[in-house]
Amino acid sequence: MTYDSSTPDGGPEPDELPRAVEPMPRDVAAVVVTYNSARHVAALLDSLPDAFGDLTYSVVVVDNDSADGTPELLHRRSDCDVVRASNDGYAAGINRAVLASPEASTILILNPDATLDPDAVPRMLEVFRRRHDAGIVAPRVREKDGSLSPTLRRGPTLGRVGGLSFTGLPVFTERIEIPGEYEGEHEVDWAVGAILLVDRRCFDALGGLDESFFLYSEETDFSLRARDAGWTTVYTPRAGAMHVGGGSGESATTHTMQMLNRVRLYRRRAGDRRAWLYFGMTIVVELRRAVLGDRKSWSTVRALLRPSIRPPQLGASTAFLPE
To answer: Can you give the residue ranges of the Glycosyltransferase 2-like domain (predicted)?
Structure first.
């Protein structure tokens, strides 16, 4: 907060107390959650000035108890505010970063292993100015080698539980891999949450991200709840970014979280009867992957069948059908 204690001609006003002047809201509040992200986060932060162009913005990074030197790296920088936190999960970290950010009309959710192209954020923001029902905007994302990263998704259904992307049929796959779907601006059910620009009114109306997911499915849940409330998720190819992926590491535990959360999300949206079918089909899919050589899937199958060994962070160990 700043204070203005002078009169129009520059002289003091002895009989009046200084007047508080509230800072102007920013255009964008960028929020990042790090967890052992020392290899990547500097590149993200370095990309932001050009990515924002002439927009006003803030950057808040919440570090979820990293042990690889990430907090020390961040504290040596002057281009972000750092909040150190216990690891309550990705969604909790994003919500905490938003609370710690100055007022802004939009929120830019960023993974630490992403980088943004010049002027990417103004191009995303422009979608809000044209489409008043838009609550979330996703950019065109490429892999490290420059190839298209298929970040667009269809909503979860019983038909899509197997992830049969090779069929090319929308009824069987959530992931959209058709190149033509990435050429023009259009609405989508949801998009991978590595880079998302969110209208602050939408974020507040939904109460932020659902922290019960801990890791994975929080962006799916958020976009689908936004759609329920009348907000759309819009993809624009005019804004570009790169996402390395796996910046915080991948393991059998994180894979198990991912699959359990898919079941939990489906149950919350479709009800118990269909969720039992979805759960059973998930077990079959993971068993098939395990037999074909995916060692992580063996751990996931065991966790699906034995609630007591599920990751405790999810709070899904008290019932056979994940809640």
So the answer is: 31-154
In one-letter notation, the amino acid at residue 82 is V
**Which structure tokens are listed for 45?**
């932060």
Chunked into runs of 10 residues, the chain (323 residues) has average pLDDT values of: 35 50 85 97 98 98 97 97 96 98 98 98 97 97 96 97 83 93 98 98 98 97 98 98 73 95 98 98 96 96 97 96 95
Q: 35: alpha, beta or left, given left = phi > 0 and alpha = psi -120 to 50?
A: beta
Which residue has tokens 């932001």?
48
CATH 3.90.550.10 fits 26-243, yes or no: yes
Q: Are 275 and 323 in contact (CB under 8 A)?
A: no
Give 286's contacts (C-beta < 8 A, 6+ positions apart). 259, 297, 300, 301, 304
Among 189, 200, 201, 181, which Cα is nearest to 140's? 181
Task: Assign 223 to helix, strand or coil.
Answer: helix
Q: Which of 184, 189, 182 is closest to 221 using CA atoms? A: 189
**pLDDT (0 to 100) of residue 197:** 98
**Domains in the chain: boundaries:** 26-243, 252-314
Q: How far is CA 277 from the centre of its chain?
A: 28
What is the predicted pLDDT for the residue at 14?
Answer: 45
Provide the token pair at 56.
Answer: 């006003």
Give residue 76's Cα distance to chain centre.
25
pLDDT given at position 13: 47
Tell me how far apart the 2 most distant CA atoms of the chain are, in Å. 82
Report the amino acid identity of residue 10.
G
